[in-house]
Amino acid sequence: MERLLTLIRNKYLIAAVAFVIWMLFFDRHDVAMQYDYYSQLKGLKAEKAFYTQEIEHVNKTLNDLNTNPQELQRMAREKYKMKKENEDVFVIIERIEEKE
After folding, report:
1. H/E element, 5
2. What does R_g of the chain's alpha carbons equal in angstroms?
3. What's this model's pTM, rounded to 2 decimal places?
4. Which candidate, 75, 49, 48, places its Cα nearest to that of 62?
5. CA distance 46 to 86
């Protein structure tokens, strides 16, 4: 018991415990803020991976459009509804039935 009291009265131990408590709960960069920063970092890394993949896809599509005339014709027909002369284009629109 006496040893425990001398350990508690140790000024270095008191200072170290106070410092740890201050850093964990009261500091500007406490544990909760570090967790929030880590969560934001994970989200930003996921967004970066998504946009990097999208950029690669767009660059591949752009390269195909610049080098392949059939791809350019397909894109013009599908996306922009273009057609050749003496050709009919039928656009089919699907209706979504509403449930009551």
Report:
1. helix 2-8
2. 32
3. 0.57
4. 75
5. 49
